[in-house]
Automatic annotation (TrEMBL):
Protein name: SprB-like repeat protein
Signal peptide: 1-26
Keyword tags: Signal
Domain of life: Bacteria
């Protein structure tokens, strides 16, 4: 008896999966609040019908058991989704073992940008030619174990165009710090985003787009132009 879990195509803000099973093997998935989930069943034993049960953090979830599978969950927590094939005992048909999968709804991420370490610097200054912007609030939830990491992205606007922050600075993915390093004069407005991302090595799968949030604040750094060389005049009395 085998359990086969097949993923359907994911699209923007949509994560879905198809459970095909005749055994009780369990799997765990991470996703975000409100993500649409499509739970379908194949290989249901003849003469039986599907019954879904849900427990949240070990407690019976309201509205279940039900013949209708859940399509999304709102509150963060661990949801055990159990598929039971049920039959009338008098029919003589055999029911299959329950199929249990866990869906972990990740807590929403918080994210704000702190004031720049250097609000302004000169394009040609040899000692200060960058500015650091650290973040506050974004932290990897313990429920993700080693399966997930955080991914930070930054965009920078110079008043006329918006570019990827990595083209005018560097991003420390371990801490979320952005360092503006451009020496092109201008006023730069910096915006950041963060989301959950699948780790390189993982056991449990992340479904969906990772609960991305934009920083509640933006920060501005000015790169000043090198002034023209002064003129020295020398006269004698």
């Amino acid at each position: 008896m085998k359990t086969k879990i097949t993923f359907l195509k994911m699209s923007f803000l949509l994560a879905s999966f198809l459970i095909t099973s005749t055994s009780a093997m369990a799997a765990t998935f991470y996703t975000c609040s409100g993500t649409t989930l499509n739970l379908g069943v194949t290989n249901l034993p003849a003469g039986t019908s599907a019954l879904w049960d849900v427990k949240k953090d070990g407690t019976q979830f309201a509205g279940y058991p039900s013949a209708t599978a859940p399509t999304s969950f709102t509150d963060p927590g661990s949801y055990e989704v159990i598929l039971v094939s049920q039959t009338d005992a008098a029919s003589g048909q055999c029911s299959s073992d329950p199929v249990s999968n866990t869906i972990i709804i990740l807590p929403p991420l918080a994210f704000s940008l702190n004031a720049p370490s250097v609000p302004a610097y000169c394009q040609s200054n040899n000692t200060v030619n960058s500015s650091d912007i650290t973040q506050t609030g974004a932290a990897l939830s313990p429920v993700s174990g080693s399966d997930l990491v955080l991914e930070y992205t930054y965009s920078v606007n110079n008043g006329t165009t918006t570019v990827d922050g990595s083209t005018v600075g560097t991003i420390d993915q371990a801490t979320g710090k952005f360092t503006l390093t451009t020496t092109t004069p201008g006023v730069y407005v910096i915006t950041g985003k963060v989301k959950y991302k699948q780790a390189t090595t993982f056991t449990n799968t992340l479904l969906g787009t990772g609960c991305e949030v934009t920083a509640t604040t933006t920060q501005t750094v000015t790169v000043t132009q090198t002034p023209g060389q002064p003129t020295v005049t020398i006269t004698a009395p």
